[in-house]
Amino acid sequence: MSIPPDKACELRQIIHNHLVKINIHGKIRDVLAETIRNDLEPGQNSLSEGDILRALHRRGIVDDVMKDLHFFKDVPDFELEPQTSPMPATHSIDKDLTKLSNSNVDPARRYLYLQVLGGKAFLEHLQEPVPLPGQVCSTFTLYLHFRNQRFRSKPVPCACDPDLQEGFLLEMHRECLGDGSKMADATVMLSISDPVHLVLIKADTSSETSLVSSHFLDWRTVLSSPSGKTCIAVELLGVGSECKVPAGVLNLSLELYPPLTETLSPDIITTQQSMERQKTAEKERLFLVYAKQWWREFLEIRDSHRSKMVKIFAQDENGMNRPVCSYVRVLRAGRLLESPRQAARFVSLMGLERAPLVGGGGGAKQEQWCSLFTFLCRSKGDCEDHASLLCSLLLGFGLDAYVCVGTKAKGVAHTWVMTRGTDGTVTFWESLTAHRFLHQSINPDSPPLVSQPRPSYPYRTIGCVFNHKVFLANSQESDAVELCRFEFHNQSLWKAMSEEALGSVCSPGSTTSLPLLPPLAGPSLEPGPASNQLELEMRYLVAEHRKDLGLTTVLDDHLSYVLSSALVAYEMERCTGTSCGNEEFQDAVRRAVPDGHTFKGFPVHFLHRNARRAFATCLRSPFCEEIVCCRGDHVRLAVRVRVFVYPENACAVWVMFACKYRSIL
């Protein structure tokens, strides 16, 4: 079995280090000198290679080299730590090839080794210059998801033929069938219709990410290979309005370990794939027939229902129409998120980006709902992506959560989340900001003198609500949110779709066209070093800016440290909605600022860690500029940065600028 190039280099380095350790070069020189002195025949000018090897064997040099090198029989080199435990192997989350030696690999189970051999024909980057060593350039990163396992490649420079050379070890374990201790044979693997989800992300020089392609790979062609290995070229298509346009080609190698004792014929694999497609197409056809009939019945209730925001289907990044209920799943974050409000804070830290629209469009919005894995890889998306993720997390925490489709002010389409309490209270969750609003219904029939609650939420109308099992259309006479009653059991207020019909196309495993639910990845960024690095950069930028103005800069380290408690309190308030620690911070500032001095502070919040972008944004505020450019007697400046890291490396970055100076009247 072949080994990856990176592992071959690592193996050569291990052997080289061992030879240096035992001083092999000195020993060979001693043997050569002795052999020439004692064994060279008169008239013989040189020794042959065989003579030298026999001399090395005779002196035991070869045995000394080999006795400390150990090899494992029938185990490939990328499995350096075989495990014999019958328990399932730990899934590798966002690991690249260089870390596979630390994976929990069990030689008693079946694995798929997927190797990326490079990219071709990414014509958008045909004129991309070759980056110089150390030069910052745009990069490609490939993300993989397969059966609860996530991987990520190393970033490579964008090019027409990008040098994507990576290997990923995918476990074929089937937890759902309870056969974790068995070796999956060809028949079992043929029934695993789960594809490998490939997502290619481009990051520009300012770390802004964009989605290049999202592709679902059916890997089962390798089951017909006698050698257990096959090479394929995968054409990646664009996304959104370019979903029919090729973006590039990836050359892949698929290899099974251990190899199959009996392979399947290509006809069997083709027949299985055809049957799955037919079964999926039939389910989708029947649901479409039911949805059309349900929509006709809904329109017969009132003519005004035609204008309501009732959305049954939505296009994903590949231009596929999917029921909106399929975008929501029950997602449990384990130890990564501890509460629903922390989950809302995490979702709000994902960036907001509308789907790009080629041409003007007169302000029209390009609709694109992304699959969850694609959204997590991009770390940004539209309000629909945020709402679907937040609803999935709230369902995982056991709440009765729904995605709401409606409008905000000026009739702008919007999507948010609502939860219903056991006491009937309705709470709206804004997924873009993590703000929560309590809904209080207004009775339009009340006398004019009766005081009515004033809505605090920004939402104007609501057309439908849904989650992973339920779809409900608003049948009330008015779709205004403040007049809406959320009594879902009342069929005169809400028209529900059949849960059985929705389950036939939206429940996990119901169709092969549905993407699998990926697990959340824990943060790999260390908040302490990230905070220190960004703070050093900010201090440098402040000093340089003041230097350009002809001002000196004296930083007060103690005052900078005092600001930490305020930044922690700000983030805690965003998570919990309650403020705490303000009294301690104010007391500490009073002690740090002498009598007769003035203190000014300016906190600001970012979703990125680009120091220059953040500093330029801060200077646009007159309050921050007044602090950074402070003039006076005995001026002391303070800068404090605190990076709070969440799953998927989503960051809440808090920066606080402060100054103190002697007041002169």
From TrEMBL:
Protein name as catalogued: Uncharacterized protein
